[in-house]
Amino acid sequence: MRLVFVTAATGVVMVVVIFELLRRRQLREKYGALWLVVALAVLPLAFFPTLLDGFTSVLGIASGLSLFLFLSVVFLLLVSVHLSWESSRLEEETRCLSEEIALLRAEVAEFKESRERVNAP
Question: Which Pfam family, an example, fits this chain (predicted)?
Fold first, then answer.
């Protein structure tokens, strides 16, 4: 019975924290929606712990908890790969922007130099 309360409390805390992060604009909406789905998926499992047992028997898995833990690990791996992809994309974009800024600064310096030469007596 304690596991039901702990799982329910975890789901409720997750929902509150995610809404607060979204409200403060510290979490983007696309990630907030993803984590809200996760948090809301935890709540039914808290109140109905045997919810996955019928599905697990069809798959030949020992218990619903084993299936839930396996799917959680797979989900976290997918999130990790997605965030790595996003990080790589942003790193490339940052590099390109840095190069553009360097070129613009060089052009501005060259323009200032040529302008000083024209204005010199």
Answer: DUF2304
Nearest one of 53, 79, 77, 81 to 66, comparing CA atoms: 53
| Per-residue confidence band for 1, with pLDDT thresholds at 50, 70 and 90 | low
Is residue 18 within 8 A of residue 56, CB to CB? The reply is no
Segment 55-80, tens digit of pLDDT: 788 888 888 778 888 888 999 999 99
* 51/28 Cα distance (integer angstroms): 31
> What are residue 89's phi and psi, to 5 degrees?
-65, -45
- Structure confidence at residue 81 (pLDDT): 96
Q: What are the C-alpha distances in Å from 35 to residues 38, 66, 89?
A: 5, 21, 22
Q: Three-state DSSP class for 26? A: coil
* Sign of the torsion formed by the C-alpha atoms of 58, 61, 50 and 45: negative
